[in-house]
């Protein structure tokens, strides 16, 4: 039994050890935290804000605050005054790192294929995308069937294993690309009939699990359409099933009123639309349609076209859309918030908000400007690309 004389000494030792451990814990906590400051921050509404600090802890965004509210123990990396801290972009409708596509022409309704096994985690295309500010990518099966299988969204970090973020959406397709010569569907009407049947079966708890999960709202869907008439037919079919997927469709109708009417219908259904990619040869009516859709309340994003297209394709598409009437705020959202949402990872990526993964791209200026370049890229708060040295860094303010 401890004597009364030894108790004070034991208490002192215990207190000293506790304080030492507490100090170590605080030091470790400080190392796990960091801040980015000095430039502009791309907000979730697409506007740019100055005078704020992005706080990161354990690879997750802790919040956005003022410099005065940052603890002195948190190290701050200062970026140039005109630079923009943006969410890492998601390459929508890409084939980055894919060595093949899931193409199964023998079954027109085939929910089983997944792009997960078609992505090479060591592909150099992943690194090129990362250096361009794409911290994640969504690969999709070829839209050659009415139901094509599942896409996947993954980080563009190279490694021995693919860092999978989402095994979705379920991909549908309707239009001339699904028609056959000698077996059903041989016509658009028969394709619509087959789509209606598989959705009705899923509503009754029959058919493929993934289709049932889509109809039940458990997984997202994405529909490819090549023409406006296919969009309208599909919206009726999915509307009857009670679940409408997002849409991959680039408008080509020169009738502005018809473009507006379709946009209003899509907006009413909460449908997000993937357009493009655009280039200087894209018809003016198509470029203007992006702004029309956006003004009517449709969330727009742009296909990246990677790796076949150059890494600036998505940003160029957004800039062209702005040139022909799309609001800059909507175009910046297209590259970030909307893209992540379509890819099924909007709860983790696409915006600089508390609780989101700290996947960030630091641009030298507005991402919509053609002369803007990447300064650095962070994944889960870790610097993974440093194209150019930041203006300075240090602890405190």
The CATH architecture of the largest domain comes to Alpha-Beta Barrel
Number of domains: 2
Do you know the CATH topology of the largest domain? Answer: TIM Barrel
Principal-axis shape equals globular
Oligomer: single chain
Top CATH class of the largest domain: Alpha Beta
Provide the β-strand percentage band: 15-25%
The helicity comes to 25-40%
Gyration radius (Cα, Å) is: 25 Å
- How many helices? The count is 10
User: Strand order across the biggest sheet?
Assistant: 3-2-7-18-19-20
The residue ranges in which pLDDT falls below 50 over 5 or more consecutive positions are: 1-31, 389-397
User: What summary fits the major beta sheet?
Assistant: 6 strands, mixed
End-to-end separation in angstroms reads 53 Å
Number of strands: 21
Secondary structure category: alpha/beta
Mean pLDDT: 88
CATH superfamily of the largest domain: Metal-dependent hydrolases
